[in-house]
Each structure stands twice: as structure tokens, then as C-alpha cells.
Amino acid sequence: MKKLIFAILLVLLVTGCACQNQTIPYENGVTLSLPQEIKAHLLEGTAIPEKRFDYPGTLNVASFSTPDRYLLAGNDHYKVSEAMANHLATFGDHYINTSVQNQPNDDGYARFGAEKLPIDPPARYSTEIKRVAWDEFGTRYSYQFRTFTSGGTVYYTYSYTTNTTLIMEISLMVVKQDGKNKLALIPLPFDTRYEVGKNLQIDKLIKKDTYLDDQYYTFIYPPYLENLSLAEKETEVRNWYTTFCQGRNENGQFVITYLNQEFAIDFGQKKLSKTDKTEQDAFAIKYLGNANQ
User: What predicted TM-score, i.e. pTM, was given to this entire model?
Assistant: First the structure.
């Protein structure tokens, strides 16, 4: 039964989108950016982040894709693989893999579209990866794909459970300005988890004051750093902000600049974990103002 279910999922992925077989074509690739409903409420002067995914020809994406999230569907697998390799390379070593899982269904051969390609030994399986990457400004992106090496070439393709996925992560802060709720984009290092983002309805952010509470902008140190001491975690986060967000000490505060807005990072904080209900070491982000004013 498990093999039958796996085969059905695979057919859906090979022929198009796993959820529905409708696609939208884009010439020469897509640009990851912010949805209009978020752009409309950003603090004045905020720079709009973008990341290009180049593709030679017409790129098809699932019809339910959004400007910040694209699922590739119904494309030339060789072209997608090369485009994905080129795209991921633009981040250099500015990424971490948050999940790496071998696919035992392969057993020496990886499915690649309608083909099965031999996997170079000693490996026997392709690997499904969830990756977090960030650009030179600290904007974070997420990817889900499967990879393997065959004939000396590294291939990138769909996971067996979902299409190749490209995401711009949108972590937000609600700020009261001139009596109105506005949105600030905030940079978070590595795989820091956040509560306020695109997952929430815009009306809840703009028309209610719930998310003005500072608790939503206090962050437990990222899982990527979980094996480090508190001092080491603080150093890693401080270094990340220094490298990507012009982190510096000003008037007794550690200040960063992100997309033309300034924030202060407060270390030595605590936050209750929603996972195990224990108090965890954390850092907080506070909005300071427009960097150009």
C-alpha cells in the first residue's frame, strides 16, 4: 500500500503540481518579492527586497503560487536543475540546511522526471533538503528540493512529497506611527522562529493592537545554535547582524539597519517556549526609526 501511495504521488509530481494540475507561465523566471497587501502597509521609506530566479525560457509555476512563494510545476527537469544550482550558488555559504533526509525508495537510482538516473556510489539514495538562506542584506529565503549526484553532475529536483519550492520569508513587526499601525520587515538570523508574518491576516495586524506587544518580537535563539553556550549564541547572532545588517554599538545599544529602517537588539532576554513550556534564553528587537531621518 505504501508503495502504491508513493507511486501515485510521484506521478502527480512528474506530470505537474501535486495539488492541482494548473500552472501559470513566466518568461525567463520569477522574482520573489512581497505581496501587495504587505507593501501597502510598510513603514515609509522601507526598501523592497527582491530575489530573482532565472530560467531559460518559460517557467511554469503552480497556479496558487504567490509573489513570495512559488512551486515549480510541469517544467524541463534538466533546465530546472541547472537554474536551481545557479540560484542557490548566489548565496555562497550564507545558508543552513534545517532538514536533510535520505530517500530509501531510490536504492541506487533517483527519479528525475520520467527518468531514473543512477546515483554515484557510495551514495544509494537521493536527499531531500529544506534550506534557509539569506542575501547580503539579511533577507531570508527558504527552499525545498531533492538532490543527488549522477555521472559526476549534481542534480536538483522535486521532493517526493512536494514540488520544488522557492520562498521569501516575511517576518514582520507592527509599529504604531502617527496613530496608525504600520509594518516593519525585520531580519532574523539563521533559522530563528517567528510568530508575526504572512501567516496572519493583514486586518489582524493593521486594525487591532494585539501585535504591538513586545513579546512577539522577543526571539528564542535559533535551533541551529542549540548546542552552543549562551555566550556563544550571543556572539553568533551579534556577528550575523554585524555582517549583514551593519550591526554596531551606538549610545549603549547594539543597533542594526535593515531595508532603511533601524532597530536595537537587546540580548539577555527570556521567553517561554511554546513547544515545551520552559523559559528559554532569547534576544529582542525594538524599532528605532527610519535610518534616513
Answer: 0.91
